[in-house]
Amino acid sequence: MIFIGIPFVVRSIQPVLEKMDKQYEEAAAMLGADGKRIFF
């Protein structure tokens, strides 16, 4: 069931993640967050 549902979740979240401003990622990195912490 999870294997069937995950592609639909990814498809619905992908446009939102692409629209996010890169400034937030850069600010988090400057404050010392690693890659995993920036993503979540």
Automatic annotation (TrEMBL):
CDD domains: TM_PBP2 (cd06261). GO terms for cellular component: plasma membrane. Its main location: membrane. Residues 1-40 form the ABC transmembrane type-1 domain. One of its GO terms (molecular function) is ABC-type sulfate transporter activity. Keywords: Membrane, Sulfate transport, Transmembrane, Transmembrane helix, Transport. It is a multi-pass membrane protein. This is Sulfate ABC transporter, permease protein CysT. InterPro entries: MetI-like (IPR000515), MetI-like_sf (IPR035906), Sulph_transpt2 (IPR005667). The keyword Plastid does not apply. It is found in: Membrane. SUPFAM superfamilies: MetI-like (SSF161098). PROSITE patterns: ABC_TM1.
